[in-house]
Amino acid sequence: MTPLLEVRGLTKAYGGRIGCAEVSFTLWPGEVLGIVGESGSGKSTLLNCLAGHLAPDAGQVIFDTRGEGPRDVLAMTEPERRMLGRTDWAFVHQNPRDGLRMRISAGGNVGERLMAVGARHYGEIRAQAADWLARVEIAEGRIDDRPSAFSGGMQQRLQIARNLVTGPRLVFMDEPTGGLDVSVQARLLDLIRGLVRRMGLSAIVVTHDLAVVRLLADRLMVMKDGRVIETGLTDQVLDDPQAPYTQLLVSSVLQA
Amino acid sequence: MSGTDYNFAYLDEQTKRMIRRAILKGVAVPGYQVPFASREMPMPYGWGTGGVQVTAACLVPEDRLKVIDQGADDTTNAVSIRKFFQKTAGVAVTERTAEATVIQTRHRIPELPLTEDQILVYQVPIPEPLRFLEPSEVETRKMHALEDYGLMHVKLYEDIARHGEIATAYAYPVKVEGRYVMDPSPIPKFDNPKLESAALQLFGAGREQRIYAVPPYTRVVSLDFEDHPFDPSKAAHPCALCGAEDSYLDEVIVDDAGGRMFVCSDTDYCAGRREAAA
Ligand SMILES: Nc1ncnc2c1ncn2[C@@H]1O[C@H](COP(=O)(O)OP(=O)(O)OP(=O)(O)O)[C@@H](O)[C@H]1O
Ligand SMILES: [Mg+2]
């Protein structure tokens, strides 16, 4: 089997400060990889380098494209990368405001990616938008409302619908449940888990919440000071952490 | 003030050459917004300083100039621009579309089909069709460069979702020669089909410092959806003065009892038809 994503030696510094350093890993089709670590450990930097939002200083990000097989994303042209960004990839931001158009209706938000890849039939676009709103449990009657009229949890679900409507194969999520209160978080996690399983999505989920990775991730990567210090199956890492830092991380959460 | 106080058509030759270079680039890349160093003109922005600079760069002494504002030659704006070039360039002027070699316009395309010998210069307030959707200039430039125009259809989608149809009636976005999405300036969408023309069409935005062009016989397609095709929409009545059924009409209030009538917005077209009928 060909890996969906293969990352080698990815490094990004901000001036003299390390963002992430020499990160390598493989993501298999249908797999969900969790990335955990304390604040400032480089999780977002890594994710943004992978998704093409940030230019890394070194490394390779090899993605198994539909048309041409494995290709280094970093060597692609900007139009090619943008095309990937609206077809095969999805990016769910922690703050829905960063991932939604707040002045466009919910239906328009979901339809945008379809139109960006050439959909030109209003009725079909709207039907797909309605279908996706239902899948993320937003009442169909809200299709013409703007996201600013939605609760935080609804906004996050709308952002997910907007991202998944083109049937991507790889989803990047940066703290998808951050900033939401606990009951809303639980419902959202359930929803994401259902979608990921049903669509057979591969995903990379950044979080500092171990409960999130316990529920979503098949495998786990622990970061500290920009480097990966431990990887393994989620249960293994959480139940039997090897690195002292991971042990601290796990125990501090268990106590909390 | 006498005409001799000015260089021909007010602008100095160096400036005109700079503007001509921008025009040539615009012609070479139809629909692409070319930046240019807009000059202060002796009239306020919003009065067509972009169009005036383009016209100044195009005019030669043999030209015959027509200036219209919303289709009419006799509005303040049209009259003052026409006078400006009479004084600074000494060119002949006309109200007859067929006789003009250069036509500067605000918000209309003449009804009479233009010819290969004519240049139509538009005054443009806001050249960026994506502006109201994406406020960042850096981002809109990138979207043009990468042909990333999904957002433009999002706007039309929103129109239909809210009003049941594409409610955009002016400045209706078009795709030029299958490549650049362009704002045709605030002409009524009724005029959009006329953007495919034998004449050279030049667009000047003074405050925003942009020039763009549609060369003769360029393909210009109004954006739409398969199930909501572009409709230039025509008023249900004929012109009350000349009886034309194919022209764009203005509503005119005729008395203070709410009486109104619909007449051609293109005054020369209307007058020409009435003359021919007389
Ligand atoms: N734009 C930036 N300029 C300079 N330094 C930055 C920038 N963004 C991140 N950093 C630094 O890079 C390191 C990694 O930051 P990053 O945001 O990737 O961490 P994180 O793991 O996502 O943290 P958090 O959990 O707080 O979101 C930190 O030391 C941070 O201060
Ligand atoms: Mg972060």
Automatic annotation (TrEMBL), chain A:
<feature type="domain" description="ABC transporter">
    <location>
        <begin position="5"/>
        <end position="250"/>
    </location>
</feature>
<dbReference type="InterPro" id="IPR003439">
    <property type="entry name" value="ABC_transporter-like_ATP-bd"/>
</dbReference>
<dbReference type="GO" id="GO:0016829">
    <property type="term" value="F:lyase activity"/>
</dbReference>
<dbReference type="GO" id="GO:0019700">
    <property type="term" value="P:organic phosphonate catabolic process"/>
</dbReference>
<dbReference type="Pfam" id="PF00005">
    <property type="entry name" value="ABC_tran"/>
</dbReference>
<dbReference type="GO" id="GO:0005524">
    <property type="term" value="F:ATP binding"/>
</dbReference>
<dbReference type="GO" id="GO:0016887">
    <property type="term" value="F:ATP hydrolysis activity"/>
</dbReference>
<keyword id="KW-0547">Nucleotide-binding</keyword>
<dbReference type="InterPro" id="IPR017871">
    <property type="entry name" value="ABC_transporter-like_CS"/>
</dbReference>
<keyword id="KW-0456">Lyase</keyword>
<dbReference type="InterPro" id="IPR003593">
    <property type="entry name" value="AAA+_ATPase"/>
</dbReference>
<dbReference type="InterPro" id="IPR027417">
    <property type="entry name" value="P-loop_NTPase"/>
</dbReference>
<dbReference type="InterPro" id="IPR012700">
    <property type="entry name" value="PhnK"/>
</dbReference>
<protein>
    <submittedName>
        <fullName>Phosphonate C-P lyase system protein PhnK</fullName>
    </submittedName>
</protein>
<keyword id="KW-0067">ATP-binding</keyword>
Automatic annotation (TrEMBL), chain B:
<keyword id="KW-0456">Lyase</keyword>
<keyword id="KW-0408">Iron</keyword>
<comment type="similarity">
    <text>Belongs to the PhnJ family.</text>
</comment>
<keyword id="KW-0479">Metal-binding</keyword>
<keyword id="KW-0949">S-adenosyl-L-methionine</keyword>
<dbReference type="GO" id="GO:0046872">
    <property type="term" value="F:metal ion binding"/>
</dbReference>
<dbReference type="GO" id="GO:0098848">
    <property type="term" value="F:alpha-D-ribose 1-methylphosphonate 5-phosphate C-P-lyase activity"/>
</dbReference>
<protein>
    <recommendedName>
        <fullName>Alpha-D-ribose 1-methylphosphonate 5-phosphate C-P lyase</fullName>
        <ecNumber>4.7.1.1</ecNumber>
    </recommendedName>
</protein>
<keyword id="KW-0004">4Fe-4S</keyword>
<dbReference type="Pfam" id="PF06007">
    <property type="entry name" value="PhnJ"/>
</dbReference>
<dbReference type="GO" id="GO:0019700">
    <property type="term" value="P:organic phosphonate catabolic process"/>
</dbReference>
<dbReference type="InterPro" id="IPR010306">
    <property type="entry name" value="PhnJ"/>
</dbReference>
<keyword id="KW-0411">Iron-sulfur</keyword>
<comment type="function">
    <text>Catalyzes the breakage of the C-P bond in alpha-D-ribose 1-methylphosphonate 5-phosphate (PRPn) forming alpha-D-ribose.</text>
</comment>
<dbReference type="GO" id="GO:0051539">
    <property type="term" value="F:4 iron, 4 sulfur cluster binding"/>
</dbReference>
